[in-house]
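Issue: ligand-bound run for flavin-adenine dinucleotide - logging full I/O for the record.

Environment: standard queue, default settings, no custom constraints.

Inputs:
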Amino acid sequence: MINDLNQLPPAGNKYASKLRFRHCAQEQQILRYAIPTEYCGHGNTFHDLVEAHQALGKLTQDSGLILSINAHLWGCVFPVLLYGTEPQKEEWLPDLLSGDLIAGHAITETQAGSDLSALETTATQTKDSFVLNGYKRFITNTPIADVLVVYALLEGELSAFLVKKDDIGANFRDKPHVDSCVTATMGDVILLGCSIPFDRRLGSAGAGKMMAQTALEFERAFIFAGISGIMGSHLTTVINYSRERQADGAYLGAHQGVSHKIAEMKVGLDTIRLWVNECARLKDHNKRITLASAQTKLFASEAFLQFCLDAVQILGANGMITNNPTLALVHDALASRLFAGSSEIQKNIIAALLGTGEGFKR
Ligand SMILES: Cc1cc2nc3c(=O)[nH]c(=O)nc-3n(C[C@H](O)[C@H](O)[C@H](O)COP(=O)(O)OP(=O)(O)OC[C@H]3O[C@@H](n4cnc5c(N)ncnc54)[C@H](O)[C@@H]3O)c2cc1C
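Outputs:
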């Protein structure tokens, strides 16, 4: 269990983000949860992973760090574990789990976010390599990444490729920034005739769509483990404030309009925890999480936003002071309704699994 982050380097720029990521990997061994021991993991459960991520969120109060770690794990570590050949696992997993390599995944493009079928990045097979061309956008960890799992069309079907930052023709850029989870780094990936050897294709040819969907399911299921750790501290702040500040001759918390908000914040937070734990239970029983991860992500991101809005409302103008951490969390909550698939897309998935919704034809 994580209990000492005193040595965590302060946040600030991309170098600090890298140091903080590495610290969590090396001092806290945070990247080894739910990975079998034969691949250098802890050999424990998804339930253990959820507890560790909650503790990390609580101690660091850093949603950018949580986003960065989740992008690394679900975007690259688990795809290599699940779809890599034995030589690929041996080559990549030790350094990915120690934090010596930082990773992520590049799905989104300038003209294709929610719609995977609109992706245009291509991979062409030549005599001795794959050659990638395309433009990926909003990719978490790009400025600090050593390798990214890039999804590209190979003979018209999506496939996944491990692209290194120093591959010729690969440009991992430091921009654009978004105003959320600000300690996570983000950037575009430009691939111009980027030539990579055959052993960098991950999974079979044409399996990319399934692999991307699986990676996103994991991210939807578990990213709120860490975030819920952060939310717990904000709830405590708000409760304390409601017990200290007075209005109309009574403490804020004595006003039903305030105490009911606090009660709803508590229910939202604990329901997020229940959903995340349900996903862990399903994974620990080798069950599918397509529906549960979409439900978790939808509920959690909407509840997170409402939680933050209520928190800032209760803190009043004090909550609006520049750099107030609760105010910053509102931006993180807005982003959470977009990354790993927006709330609308989660509703589409849930409806489709119920046999209705977009695309349903009699
Ligand atoms: C902080 C952050 C980190 C990110 N990290 C990564 C990363 O590491 N890797 C990566 O590949 N991408 C990443 N992204 C991109 C993210 O995956 C996309 O933002 C997301 O998929 C939505 O795509 P879009 O922003 O292009 O919106 P669009 O797809 O253009 O959608 C715009 C709006 O229309 C709605 N909409 C679109 N289609 C439908 C539909 N069929 N039905 C109903 N509503 C619809 C959406 O819900 C949204 O509200 C990140 C984004 C953020 C904000």
